[in-house]
Amino acid sequence: MARVHGLFCSVMENFAQSTDYSAQSTDYFAQSTDNSAQYAENFAQSMDYLAQSMDYSAQSTDYLAQSMDNLVLSTDDLRQGTDNSSQGSDRTLLSDQDRKLSTDNFVLSTDNSVPSMDNSLDGRIISLYPRILRFYPRINAASGG
Predict the structure, then answer these.
(1) pLDDT tens per residue across span 16-41
(2) Which of 20, 48, 98, 144 is 20 to 30 Å from 2 by CA-CA measure?
């Protein structure tokens, strides 16, 4: 009888362990599903930031093209000013203004590149924050807090 009782206890213990493993497996599956959803959300957010970055790059390219056009204009103005000495002073002034505008456009194109890098970094930080918050209660509960 003691042997039957021992076998019964062993079977019940194995059943309880199996139930625990099944519950753990369900928890891992739920966590995996949560992680997959978060990764999909992060990917979508990354795509948004990439699109923003590409917009900023396109703007930078436009400013660079304007800068190059202004540089050509300033070079032409300088050449014309040199050829025409009576109007040389006026042309040099215009050339200097065009060169300044060209420099300003180049600086503006560089400044437009910075927000895209900032947005990309902000996106990475922002995408990690919800994940940390979501797992904090589980970590807190597991530590007995």
Answers:
(1) 888 888 889 888 888 988 888 888 88
(2) 20
